[in-house]
Amino acid sequence: MTLKIAKRGTVAPFIVMDVLRAANEREAKGDDVIHLEVGQPSTGAPQKVIEATQKALLSDKIGYTDALGIAPLRERISQHYKDYYNVDVPAHRVVVTTGSSTGFLLSFLCAFEPGDKIGLTAPGYPAYRNILRALGYQPIEIEVGPDTHFQPTPEILDNLGVDLDGLIVASPGNPTGSMLSTADLQILCAYCDQKGIRFISDEIYHGITYDQRANTAVEFSDNVILINSFSKYFSMTGWRLGWMVVPENMVRPVECLAQNMFISAPTLSQYGGVAAFDCMEEAEANVALYAKNRELLLNELPKAGFTKLAPSDGAFYIYSDVAHLTNDSQAFCRDILEKTGVATTPGVDFDSARGDHFMRFSYAGSFEQMREAAKRLQAYLK
To answer: What pLDDT is stored for residue 302 in this prediction?
Structure first.
């Protein structure tokens, strides 16, 4: 007898992970791969993070922590908002999580009821859509493009014809790297407060910007849920450590959910997280590397035929319209990997309606890898 699989387990795959698997299989056979598919920094965790975790490993039993996280880390995150953004965020509103992914789960479960409608941009991070569907919510994809800098506006939301219960916004965004201006973020926060829409601000790429600093949404509203992570700016992807800033009345509900579902974030990683904020110089050196990679690809990709590129204000992605090259981005990316060894991500991961003629390049790797990738892509499309 074959037992059923619950519908929540039949969500769409996170295609970038499928691409990564194919790239790893290629490497296992002895063929080289240049990884432009996954948003993972090529650098490791900062040195002081390593030292702090080594010390903790020798001196602490590494047991459970409070579900909301260790006090020194919550206090250090609170201080970061004062130092970096000049915004007061009380430590008791900070929730330490197992990466940003746990933050999204806790946010959705605490803020929405089954059947609620949550808006998210297309193109946008696919895990939002897939997690929402798995949990019984209705993701409402909001098509955005160059005319609004790939970000939502009140006008677009007014014309949806749907009363939203929530809105997820990332600035800088994935896959486009686009950012909201200070004024536009403030307007969007005010709009959501006025309409009773729960605003969830994905800020995991904060710190990785090139022409302007990103603003935090908690500067403009006490009702927003903010989600951030140590993965990108601090190069700590495998440490699985993130945080949330939640409204006052949501602290205890989030704590209860976290207690039951996750116990606590990894203890060793939390000790490392405290030290991460003393490593800004090292993190900024990484951002300088991304800026160099970005400049190279923005100059070289058009020479390979990738001429329609999204803004890439921040993060480490370039999103390209490739309608003049293909109408099947998945097959196109597979062919590029097979013939050049350059792994890229098809746009269908980020936009179910229009992604067949888009693709994403990640420039989180080394400068040498970016230069070689550009060379191979130019040869491929000669």
So the answer is: 96
